[in-house]
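Homework help thread (please don't just give me the answer)

Our assignment gives two proteins as sequence + structure token strings and asks us to describe the second one. The first is just a warm-up. Here they are:
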Amino acid sequence: MSSVRAPEHPAVEQATSVHHFEIETEGADLLEWETIDTLYEAGCTDATVRHGSVEFDREAPTLVEAIESAINDLETVPGVRVKGVRRH
């Protein structure tokens, strides 16, 4: 006879919102095609690249989580250093 297990509690999903902010950078030229490709591959698919900054429309439960994940993505791109964050 097979035993039946009670279903595990599904993870409670937090509501998410789209947060708009800009991260100022230094180092690598963000407008070079190679850098743009690397940004995309790093997870910045929700970003608009500008000279010296990247604007995000990032979905996350909180603004802080959105900014943290964007910074983590940017910091994987060689030569890109985060200078600051501006909220719009």
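The one we have to describe:
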Amino acid sequence: MSGPPAATGHAGDAEPTSYEDWHLLGRDERVPTDPERPWLPPPRPAPESGWTTKLVVEYDGTDFVGWAKQPGKRSVEAEFERAIGQIFGGECPRIIVGGRTDTGVHARGQIVAYDGEALAPYNLNALLPKDIAVVSSEPARPGFDPRNEAISRTYRYRVWHCRERNVFRQRDTLLWGRELDLGALRACAEALLGNRDFTAFTPTETLHSWFRRTVDHAAWAYEDGLEGDGRPISRTAGRSPILVFEITADSFLRHMNRALVGTMLDVGLGMRSVDEFAALLDGAPRDQAGWTAPPTGLSLESIQYPGEPS
């Protein structure tokens, strides 16, 4: 697996930027001049130990404030620091995550790296809480950076499209008992493809200064692969009532997927047209888009890296 090319600051800058210097730059200094080619940082230097480990991780995000540590609150990152630090004798090596999920958002294919020898998933899971699990643990290239080397990420938003609620799916699906226009939802997903300005789908107060993202794949489909007529599916129908929105992009803005889902569901209800939705993808202000769906149904499914099978 090869890393990204070394960055040289803004396109056209002559002086190279070190990995550490890049992280000291303000967000407005990281905006690419070419929106089709996001500016990547230089490769992370190999650690002195010569070891970097890659973990594939899953977690139920319901009871976490997200990945990142926050004082006095429960986070996935803090749980990993505690578990890994305990194994390494109290000192936790640097931990880097592929995608910083927000409060309540789940992960089925999160990528975590730390500088140190690989630990067996069994040993890590014995020290982690029951709502976090390490799926695999393997040596990676020394200095592997799961966040900055990622070329794309895939999220899914799951909707329990059924009038009868399910107590076992309330933590990972949005309960939705209303009829939807599936053709309109799919047309909205198709409109997302390509390089778009998602200003309308992230909070107005934001640290982001670059709002364009490139979407490689977006689709609505039932989890069982069968078609539907848009009406809520009965639990006695013998098929899955879970409707899934899947999206793959180079990166995502804060709350972007949830705002997209909320707005598309408005379209599915006939509250706005597909054309009105598509017009939002040209940098419209946030107040012109729809509501932000709750984090319950959102999950980081996988992260893609150069050289991996597509």
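TA reply:
I won't write it for you, but here's a hint about the kind of observation we're looking for: The chain is about 15% helix and 25% strand.
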